Task: structure prediction
Amino acid sequence: MMKEEMISEILNQLMTGELSEYYVKNDDFMEFRQVLVKRKDFKHFRGIGQRGGDVLYQYLKEPRS
Result:
């Protein structure tokens, strides 16, 4: 199970470009999403669904519509 601080750190690393993408396992998805949707820059994150319910997250310069 992922901690909120850890998730926030990962999201910040995606935002700054330290990480180009981050792979979230299906088991951690709900915790990860709960932290993600609270962020002001939520629309800049793109989640790409993978086989088995995992999600690959990327940070976009332009917010998605």
The two ends are 31 Å apart (CA to CA). The mean pLDDT is 96. The first strand starts at residue 22 and ends at 24. The beta strands are 22-24, 45-49, 55-59.
